[in-house]
Amino acid sequence: MNRTRIILVGGFLGAGKTTFIWKVAERLIAGGKRVGLVTNDQAPELVDSELLRHQQLSVSEVAGSCFCCNFNGFTDAVKTVRQEAKADIVMAEPVGSCADLSATILQPLKKYWNTELDVSPLTVLADPSRLESILHAGRGGLHEDAAYIFGKQLEEADIIAITKTDTLSPEHLAQLKAETKAAFPKSSVMAVCALSGEGMEEWLTEVTTKTEAGTRLLDIDYDRYAHGEAVLGWLNGTVNLSSPQPEEWDGFLNTLMLQLKDVFEREALPVGHVKVIAENGKHYSIGNITGADRMLTLREGAGKSTNLRLIINARVECSPEHLDHLVRDTLIHSIDGRYNDKVDAWRYLQPGRPNPTHRFDSVV
């Protein structure tokens, strides 16, 4: 089999990683490349994987641990999607709260997989409002140890890609790029927008031609890192709804997302992200709540039917038990006795301490 290029796209929760790799995959496929994707989460039932499958993309998922703590599971997933898609390029999306990727993922790949894989520079996507806060000694609406993780992600990045540039004026973006470069002079700094395509070709050229990957190793406090992950409650759930009469499901999802947003605002809970996909066969709609300002976005298209499958992923700064209580109560309130519901899967947890399979102390 020919060599495959592997591109890791990291970044903190809510940075827009999944939309970004979806749009990149579309561009690569349009250019004649075969592409595979690897997603990652601390638990199964992942909205990101389901969304990417709806785009007819080849996806493999590593669930139950981060890439670094299950390196063999990660490489098995790479191998699977590489073979299934006969992939020229594999893009991998680590858990949003994961850092230290240079020492735990990139160096092992360069040492043990150097005959099969070309490893691209590590990209870290950065939400502009969260990035700007961190650059000005703020916390981006996060607990100080969660903000510490985001800062470490930026510090080890070969490429920092500022996302959602359509939300910034040209002057504001230029200033933010300059400030980011000043703070992280060893990283390339780019600006990208998945929806408009701005900066995407420049970024693609960088990651598909260069092989200087993981050029630095972090000095990272694993106690702070572990606590920064543990302050977030994680919830993944799948629920099937049925209605006596055909229902317009976009309206239901809109109501659910607005009510979730109101609950987190009322309790002043920082949100990493809350993602919901509402599936009606091949039709689906997506709702996202991200960031300190709990910004809500919706993409509609679930259509009308008597049945709906909901997948809910929530990462919120509170205990897992409290998050479970809030999401369950909000879902019940949104259903309001109009539909029958059946829970297929429901997990809430607090991430355990990171325990990498490998952690290199020098750059390969």
Q: Tell me about the biggest sheet?
A: 8 strands, parallel
Beta content: 25-35%
Shape: globular
Structural class: alpha/beta
**Are there runs of 5+ residues with pLDDT below 50, and where?**
none
Compute the number of strand runs: 14
Helix content: 25-40%
Taking all Cα atoms into account, the compactness measure Rg is 20 Å
Q: How many helical elements?
A: 11
How far apart lie the N and C ends? Answer: 24 Å
Walkthrough of the structure:
The chain has 364 residues and is an alpha/beta fold. The chain is 38% helix and 28% strand. It contains 11 helices and 14 strands. Helix 6 crosses helix 9 (222-230). It is globular and about 60 Å long.
Short description:
With 364 residues, the chain is α/β, with parallel strands linked by helices. The chain has helices at residues 17-30, 47-54, 71-85, 101-112, 128-135, 144-156, 170-183, 200-209, 222-230, 249-266, 320-335, and strands spanning 4-11, 35-41, 58-63, 89-92, 117-119, 123-126, 159-162, 188-191, 233-248, 271-280, 283-291, 295-299, 304-316, 340-349. The protein starts with a strand and ends in a 15-residue tail after the last strand.
Write the layout of secondary structure elements.
Layout: E1 4-11, H1 17-30, E2 35-41, H2 47-54, E3 58-63, H3 71-85, E4 89-92, H4 101-112, E5 117-119, E6 123-126, H5 128-135, H6 144-156, E7 159-162, H7 170-183, E8 188-191, H8 200-209, H9 222-230, E9 233-248, H10 249-266, E10 271-280, E11 283-291, E12 295-299, E13 304-316, H11 320-335, E14 340-349
Parallel strand pairs: 1-4, 1-5, 1-6, 2-3, 2-4, 6-7, 7-8
Antiparallel strand pairs: 9-13, 9-14, 10-11, 10-13, 11-12
Helix pairs in contact: 5-7, 6-9, 10-11
